[in-house]
Amino acid sequence: MLSISFIRQYPELVKERLLTRNFGNPNLVDELLHTDDQYRKVKFTTENIQASINSASKEIGMLMAKGDKEAAEVKKEEETQEEI
Q1: What whole-number distance in Å separates Cα of residue 61 and Cα of residue 82?
Q2: Given this model, what pLDDT does residue 24 score?
Q3: Which portions of the chain are predicted below pLDDT 70?
Q4: What pLDDT is stored for residue 84 in this prediction?
Q5: DSSP state letter for 24
Q6: Closest to 50 (Cα-Cα) out of 39, 40, 38, 42
Q7: Distance between CA 14 and CA 28 in Å, rounded?
Q8: Cys-Cys crosslink for 15: which of 26, 28, 52, 81, Cβ 3.0 to 4.6 Å?
Q9: Residue 48 exposed, middle or buried by CB count within 10 Å (0-12, 13-18, 19+)
């Protein structure tokens, strides 16, 4: 089985080798790479959003620990609006 990193590095070689094995559609390699690119973009965006949520949660926790419930509620409301 080929790893996705190998396919990313050597797409033409993979296509060439698939043709020697009578694989019917080497263009699937291009589709795979396109899908992988989309997946990586979505994963990056998701990780950034999660990092933002974690940061806000930590800040809200610190505000609550200080007893500043009003500021914590304001921060919660801001984060809720940003998620939408």
Answers
A1: 18
A2: 83
A3: 83-84
A4: 58
A5: S
A6: 42
A7: 11
A8: 26
A9: exposed
Vertex 10, ends 29 and 5: CA angle to 5°? Answer: 80
Q: What pLDDT does 83 receive?
A: 64
Distance between CA 50 and CA 78 in Å, rounded? 15
Q: In whole angstroms, how far apart are CA 42 and each of 18, 35, 37, 49? A: 29, 11, 9, 11
Q: How far apart are CA 52 and CA 78, in angstroms?
A: 12
CB-CB contact of 62 with 47 (8 Å): no
Residue for token pair 């993979």? 14
The answer to whether residues 7 and 33 touch, using CB atoms and an 8 Å cutoff, is yes
Q: What pLDDT, in 10s, does the model give residues 14-31? A: 999 998 888 888 889 999
Question: Which amino acid is located at 3 in the chain?
Answer: S
Of 47, 17, 20, nearest in space to 29 by CA: 17
